[in-house]
Design goal:
The chain is α/β, with parallel strands linked by helices. About 45% of the residues lie in helices and about 10% in strands. The chain contains 19 helices and 12 strands.
């Protein structure tokens, strides 16, 4: 997995884009229908996502970055990208993933912003276009291509590489003469010291991200060794068991719970950042886990009264970032397919991704785009640039990792034993292989 992050710059060429559209399903027709051109004068691409288009005065950096790239496409192509938005109030008990699956299976939209597990499901069902025909796809980092390839097809492309790490209050570590932990043993020792000095909950957790501990411990060797493809093939065939890889990770999380380093009851109900965030910002807990962009957003952890460091999760190989891929997937039966692919090729071009990465200060999916990150993120950035990480989502694994591991960890929070969690992983693997 080394060498995915090389420097350079390749400019997007409009002429190449127009030629590339033919490979993506454009129908050749020498005739010109003036009446049809008049009807189609106002062209639209429908995008379903978790957020609406920004107001001009909006301060949400992530939304602004995305909108800037969409505006580039709208202006160049003379069309409008219409946002169809998920809201919890509208869909009540249905999650964003539930709604995305239902809409994509019904061909309701042209393009979707999808989470890793949804990408894998829709890709395996043949509901997403192969985006390898886009000119912009040639510039992708290998890690992006591997993560989002299903049955040999590149079914989704993100605007950023989402990296998860441990957000730590460096001042609190210094107060107790603690080094930032590299291994599981060092991490538990730090938690012990914090706990014995009156810090009630050393690790702030929520119901979504504890699986990162499991994934980092499970796959540190798989993704940083020499036999990645062979090991994944054995897991996909059932020759090897996921439970054997994941035992250490589940045991580690169980120890955090049993020792009171994580409050299982709160974690089970907490939403990401909203739940554990206030205690971290108020310096009541020294460690939380979050994604890269949270260090840049003032609404998350971008403005703190102490020194922030973002490091990898503990493993016997040292600190280990966890990389997960969300991404844009195009409906294979999109109503406005040609225009949608043209939009994708612009917002995923190096030119647009440079704007996005500079605005959000994130790792770009393009191997040609790199921006300077804030000091707090440099430990995590250095590891990723050195090719040291594990994939939290990998469409090449038949058993979907991100969502399934999250759900099994929740069983642990509810009181399940490690053995019960491993039995559930075995059941899921057998079920997946039998499909």
């Amino acid at each position: 997995m080394k060498g995915y992050f090389k420097k350079g710059l390749v400019l997007f060429l409009t002429g190449a884009l127009l030629m590339g559209m033919a490979a993506c399903g454009k129908k050749e027709d020498d005739t010109v229908n003036l009446a049809e051109d008049t009807v189609r004068e106002k062209k639209v691409v429908n995008l379903f996502g978790p957020m609406e288009k920004s107001n001009p005065d909006a301060k949400n950096i992530a939304r602004s970055a995305h909108d800037l790239t969409v505006i580039m496409a709208e202006e160049e192509l003379g069309l409008s990208v219409e946002y169809r938005t998920y809201t919890a109030e509208t869909y009540q008990d249905e999650t964003y993933d539930d709604v995305s699956l239902a809409r994509a299976r019904s061909d309701m939209d042209d393009v979707y912003l999808l989470n890793p597990d949804t990408i894998q499901i829709l890709g395996s069902e043949g509901k997403l276009m192969d985006l390898s025909c886009l000119e912009s796809s040639a510039n992708l980092r290998d890690v992006v291509r591997v993560s989002n390839t299903v049955d040999g097809k590149l079914v989704a492309i993100p605007q950023e590489v989402v990296v998860y790490g441990l957000f730590v209050n460096k001042n609190m570590f210094d107060d107790y003469d603690l080094e930032l932990p590299n291994t599981p043993e060092e991490f538990l020792e730090c938690c012990r010291v914090f706990k014995e000095n009156g810090i009630e909950t050393p690790v702030g957790a929520n119901r979504w991200w504890l699986e990162n501990f499991v994934l980092a411990l499970a796959y540190a060797d798989l993704y940083n060794g020499e036999n990645t493809e062979v090991e994944i093939a054995a897991l996909n065939s059932g020759e090897a068991k996921y439970s054997d890889y994941m035992r250490e990770g589940f045991e580690f999380v169980k120890t955090l719970i049993d020792m009171g380093y994580v409050d299982a009851e709160k974690a089970y109900t907490y939403e990401a950042i909203e739940g554990e965030g206030p205690d971290f910002r108020e310096q009541k807990t020294p460690i939380v886990m979050a994604y890269w962009g949270a260090a840049n957003a003032e609404t998350a952890y971008g403005k703190l009264d102490f020194e922030l460091k973002v490091i990898g999760f503990p493993s016997h190989r040292g600190q280990m970032p966890v990389v997960s891929m969300s991404g844009y997937g195009v409906c294979v039966n999109a109503e406005h397919l040609e225009d949608t692919l043209a939009v994708m090729d612009i917002i995923l071009s190096d030119e647009a991704l440079q704007v996005y990465a500079e605005t959000n200060k994130v790792i770009s999916p393009s191997k040609n785009v790199e921006v300077e990150c804030i000091d707090a993120l440099k430990p995590l950035n250095d590891l990723v640039n050195d090719g040291v990480f594990v994939l939290g989502s990998n469409a090449g694994m038949r058993l979907e990792q991100w969502g399934n591991t999250c759900l099994v960890v929740r069983k642990l929070l509810e009181g399940a034993s490690v053995e019960e969690c491993l039995e559930e992983i075995d059941r899921l693997q057998e079920e997946t292989i039998g499909e």
